[in-house]
Amino acid sequence: MRLFDRASAKLKYPKIRFSQYQLYRTSGGKYPGAIYVSPLERNSGWYARIEVTGLLTLNKYNPLPGLEAQLRRLASDPTRYAQEHGHTTGNCCFCKKTLTDQRSLFAGYGPDCAAHYGLPYPIRKKLGGRGKK
Ligand SMILES: [Zn+2]
Questions:
Q1: What residues are paired with 56 via a beta bridge?
Q2: Cβ proximity of 34 and 50 under 8 Å
Q3: Is 25 helix (H, G, I), strand (E, B) or coil?
Q4: How many A from CA of 26 to the centre of ligand 1?
Q5: Residues forming a β-bridge with 23
Q6: Tens of pLDDT along 63-94?
Q7: Residue 33 Cα, ligand 1 centroid: separation in angstroms?
Q8: Of the candidates 65, 124, 127, 131, which lies 20 to 30 Å from 73 by C-alpha distance?
């Protein structure tokens, strides 16, 4: 939740994609501001909903085994969770881009996403003329 609150300040539609599911925030509907956990395919229902109060509801008609444990790990240490995804897949979980930069590979996500989501990113070292920013 806090991750999304920070991101909402910078991004209109923050969305995070992991290997098995994605998270996105709703604006209207029955539960305004709630975060939905859904399959990666479009329009294929949802696995779970996290309301602004933090209440987690698992969709019993569309269960994803182990999801609750995953979400708890994500909530307790989002930086590490994002990092693990980056390290195992080679992609940034926030923007899906392939991680190429040395520091991004180390962090597990890219610099822009780190800024958007308020995550730590390694300080730039002068590596001798490798682009700017
Ligand atoms: Zn990214």
A1: 50
A2: yes
A3: strand
A4: 21
A5: 16, 37
A6: 999 999 999 889 888 899 999 999 999 999 99
A7: 22
A8: 124
